[in-house]
Specification:
By secondary structure, the protein is α/β, with parallel strands linked by helices. It has one domain: 3-Layer(aba) Sandwich (Rossmann fold). 26% of the residues lie in helices and 25% in strands. The protein has a 7-stranded parallel β-sheet, sandwiched between helices. The chain is globular and about 35 Å long.
């Protein structure tokens, strides 16, 4: 069964969401899971691409910006609502429940403090689609966020 984990951040800082997405991607990459980061627009894509070169500071996260199609790199990102292929993990930084979530074993929703009402709506949407749902609260400040605890990859 596909799963969705909501990572509830106790901040309203978009930079914190980006750093958290980088840490999630790094953790999944370390576990040899294919992670795709969906971003809302080209500017966000550029910012996150640059941030992945620096965060987390203790690891390098090999990644590629997709122009369309899938890629052999473990971490990919794009601002398009389409993804060719399948992957292990979708990290969603957009404000919508993406249709492409069904192409992944696991979806991660990163939620800022002021976005809780929208996250509840996403929760209901995912539940109606029979996803298994989880959540984690992260209340540290943005610069000291501990690495999230993604579930172990599914057996293949």
């Amino acid at each position: 069964m596909a799963t969705v984990t909501f990572y509830l951040l106790e901040t309203n800082d978009e930079d914190s969401r980006q750093k958290f997405a980088c840490k999630l991607a790094a953790d999944y990459c370390y576990r040899q899971s294919r992670a795709h980061i969906l971003v809302p627009n080209q500017q966000y894509l550029k910012e996150l691409d640059e941030m992945l070169w620096e965060h987390p500071s203790d690891r390098f996260v090999p990644h590629v910006v997709l122009a369309g199609g899938s890629e052999s790199c473990l971490v990919t990102l794009n601002a398009e609502a389409q993804f060719d292929g399948t992957g292990d993990v979708l990290i969603n930084t957009t404000s919508n429940v993406p249709d492409m979530a069904s192409q992944f074993h696991r979806t991660c929703e990163i939620v800022l403090a002021t976005e809780r009402p929208r996250a509840r709506e996403h929760y209901r949407q995912y539940r109606s689609l029979d996803y298994e749902l989880f959540y984690e609260v992260h209340d540290e400040d943005a610069d000291s966020l501990n690495s999230p605890s993604p579930p172990a990859p599914e057996e293949k």
